[in-house]
Amino acid sequence: MDVILRPMRWWDIEPVMDLELRLFPEDAWSPAMYWSELAEAHPGGTRHYTVATTEDDRIVGYAGLMAVGTEGDVQTIAVDERLQGAGLGTALLTDLVEESARRGCAELLLEVRVDNLRAQRLYERFGFQPVGVRRGYYQPANVDALVMRLDHPTHDSKDPKNG
User: Fold this and answer.
1) Catalytic residue among 34, 123, 137, 138
2) Which of 100, 89, 92, 137 is nearest to 115 (CA)?
3) Phi/psi zone of residue 113: left (φ > 0), alpha (ψ -120 to 50 degrees), beta?
4) What range(s) does the N-acetyltransferase domain occupy (predicted)?
């Protein structure tokens, strides 16, 4: 199945919520949270949101980034359970990592449920390293979050391409 990545728009919130509620029934975001995030997803804004769609424009995944100064944070990433394991999570995370680098982030952080080993393996393949735990982060289930960080290469004089 061919999948297209494109910027998330306000009209995507309803189908994103359908997927959100199916994938994260205990700790789903609200539509208002997505409206708030998209309000900052404009040129010069602090957010970047992408949806993955099929050729008939059905949303099968989405991801969001917050980038402030030199720090980036993966806000969310989700893939339709019927397409998990097909490389869509990799494509979405690649989009976020590349966008964070484009925006000049020195590091990219994320939180992932301690019981979501599949997602942790994806992040580790990208070079994310565990840096801490946030107790009871996911509510109301009271599930801990593993905090992971990816350090972007710096542009300094040690890099022969930079001088």
Assistant:
1) 123
2) 137
3) beta
4) 3-153
Burial class (CB in 10 A: 0-12, 13-18, 19+), 51: buried
Element (H, E) at 144: strand 143-151
Strand order in the sheet with 143-151: 3-7, 47-54, 59-68, 71-79, 107-113, 143-151, 129-138
CB of 54 within 8 A of CB of 1? yes
34 is catalytic: no
Q: Which member of 20, 34, 49, 111 is catalytic?
A: 111
Q: What is residue 146's DSSP assignment?
A: E
CA separation for the pair 28, 63 (Å, rounded): 14
pTM: 0.90
- What's the one-letter identity of residue 123? Y
Residues 48-106 have pLDDT tens digits of: 999 999 999 999 999 999 999 999 999 999 999 999 989 999 999 999 999 999 999 99
CATH of domain 3-108: 3.40.630.30
Instruction: Determine the average pLDDT of the residues in 149-153.
Output: 89
* Residue 121: how many other CB atoms lie within 10 Å: 9
Asked if 55 is an active-site residue, the reply is: no
The tens digit of pLDDT for each residue in 35-47 reads 999 999 988 899 9
